[in-house]
């Protein structure tokens, strides 16, 4: 799954997003590209759950199809 994520600017953002997604699935693979404003995630969760988890951390996200 790939997401466009707003407000990502630093390492703290990367850790917050990675942590939010890994709380949904501890074995999730998460790759954050700050320069592109994207997150690629592979885990046992739905895109909607991932969007909700990132938004709860303060990072509005939309799934990219």
TrEMBL record:
Domain HMA positions: 1-62
InterPro entries: Heavy-metal-associated_CS, HMA_dom, HMA_dom_sf
Database matches in Pfam families: HMA
Protein name, per record: Copper chaperone
GO molecular function, one term: metal ion binding
Swiss-Prot/TrEMBL keywords: Metal-binding
Organism: Dyella psychrodurans
């Amino acid at each position: 799954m790939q997401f466009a994520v707003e407000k990502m600017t630093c390492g703290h953002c990367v850790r917050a997003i990675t942590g939010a997604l890994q709380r949904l699935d501890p074995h999730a693979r998460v790759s954050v590209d700050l320069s592109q404003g994207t997150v690629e995630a592979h885990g046992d969760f739905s895109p909607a759950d991932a969007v909700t988890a990132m938004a709860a951390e303060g990072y509005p996200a939309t799934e990219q199809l």
